[in-house]
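User: tokens in, sequence out, please.
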């Protein structure tokens, strides 16, 4: 799929992986809806960067995805108003809250299922209803834990495994109009609040990665772009882990 002149919606696009994905799709020629939850200034900075560096159009849109149905409706109402229609949706926004098995609460479960699984579904629903012909691309950002669970963080892992099932089911449900794929990153960036220095994080991650280096955000953004452009690929999951999922 040629991305020049298309419109892409990237959720959680103000910071970290989502920011890199938004910049990559703009570099490929897309106008971009930079969705954010709390990082309004950072979202505005991404918009300015896209407009200055690529000349593409970009707009920051706030929607709280803790309320998945209303959040998805708010975001796509803004898409309709500003661009008419979106051709690409990247479900990147998510939460990751570590929790000890013995003390995980029902609220913890509900937060992870709501933001990491239900929100991508309702965003896909709003995205799909815009299509009459073909040419859409939906990419869900998963996690290596979706296909290779660890003993930790089970609500997060289960939500991402659910998103993997949703990716394949939506690929069937939305064909031929929309291709649906997933990117499953390894540990690309240090998570906030884990009590490790960046150096400690890097040496721990490198020790587990066959390619012996950390990835950063750009390989994930490149994988999203590839899947958006790959016209005969749907229902696929691309691991971007340096081999850490093997
Ligand atoms: N980083 C990694 O190494 C890694 C590894 C595996 C998988 N992943 C996956 O890759 C994606 C991005 O990861 P990341 O580390 O860049 O994530 P992150 O720093 O945790 O950012 C997540 C994004 O989700 C948005 N978000 C959170 N709560 C929201 C809410 N209530 N309403 C609307 N938006 C909300 C945030 O927007 P605001 O900041 O504007 O609130 C933020 O931009 C996630 O799906 C994650 O699970 C990441």
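Assistant: Sequence out:
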């Amino acid at each position: 799929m040629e991305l020049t002149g298309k419109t892409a919606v990237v959720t959680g696009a103000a910071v970290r992986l989502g920011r890199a994905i938004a910049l990559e799709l703009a570099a490929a020629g897309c106008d971009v809806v930079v969705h954010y939850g709390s990082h309004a200034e950072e979202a505005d900075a991404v918009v300015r960067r896209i407009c200055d560096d690529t000349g593409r159009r970009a707009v920051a849109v706030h929607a709280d995805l803790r309320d998945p149905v209303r959040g998805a409706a708010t975001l796509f109402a803004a898409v309709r108003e500003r661009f008419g229609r979106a051709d690409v949706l990247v479900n990147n926004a998510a939460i990751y809250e570590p929790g000890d098995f013995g003390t995980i609460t029902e609220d913890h479960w509900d937060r992870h299922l709501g933001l990491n699984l239900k929100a991508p579904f309702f965003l896909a629903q709003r995205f799909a209803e815009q299509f009459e012909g073909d040419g859409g691309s939906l990419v869900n950002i998963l996690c290596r834990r979706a296909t290779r669970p660890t003993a930790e963080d089970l609500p997060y892992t289960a939500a991402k495994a659910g998103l993997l099932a949703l990716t394949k089911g939506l690929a069937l449900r939305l064909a031929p109009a929309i291709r649906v794929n997933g990117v499953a990153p390894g540990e690309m960036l240090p998570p906030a609040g884990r009590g490790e220095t960046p150096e400690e994080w890097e040496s721990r991650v490198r020790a587990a990665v066959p390619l012996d280096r950390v990835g950063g955000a750009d390989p994930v953004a490149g994988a999203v772009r590839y899947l958006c452009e790959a016209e005969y690929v749907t229902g696929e999951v691309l691991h971007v882990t340096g081999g850490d999922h093997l």
